[in-house]
Amino acid sequence: MTHKAKCGPERDPEFFRDVAEVFAKHPGASRRYSVRCLAAVTEALGVDFTKQVGVSRVEGDRIVTEFRSRDEFPHEGEEEPPCCELAGDPPHEFCVCYCGL
Predict the structure, then answer these.
(1) Under 8 Å CB-to-CB from 68, ≥6 apart: which residues?
(2) pLDDT tens digits, one per residue of 85-97
(3) Which residues are within 8 A (CB) of 93 and not within 5 positions of it... i.e. 6 or more apart?
(4) pLDDT tens digit string along 16-69?
(5) Secondary structure of the chain in the HEC alphabet?
(6) Could you tell me the pTM of the whole model?
(7) CA nearest 48: which of 57, 38, 58?
């Protein structure tokens, strides 16, 4: 029995080749970023990123992420917390996780 990977280079080899090229082109910036599989979060936790957003905070030596309603956060303003994880296709990217709360 074979299975198709939900995420990663096996599932999306062209995407990961392009990501590798971008990371190689911007080595300083590439150390600050990673690629995350949102399918794993949506499947394991039932998160709907159209209605919910992750909110991460540091607790001791852990990063804790809770998922809250998007309605709790202002949109595109100075009061919005910093976004540390984006998804979507340009120019329609959207925040999937706010950090530093």
Answers:
(1) 52, 53, 55
(2) 999 888 888 899 9
(3) 86, 87
(4) 999 999 999 999 998 888 898 998 888 889 999 999 999 999 999 999 999 999
(5) CCCCCCCCCCCCHHHHHHHHHHHHHCHHHHCCCCCCCHHHHHHHHCCCCCCEEEEEEEECCEEEEEEEEHHHCCCCCCCCCCEEEEECCCCCCEEEEEECC
(6) 0.75
(7) 38
> Which among 35, 37, 34, 82 has a CA at the least distance from the CA of 56?
82
Task: Tell me which amino acid residue 54 is.
Answer: G
What are 21-30's pLDDT values in tens digits?
999 999 999 8
Joined tokens for residue 84: 């540390």
Q: What amino acid occupies position 15? A: F
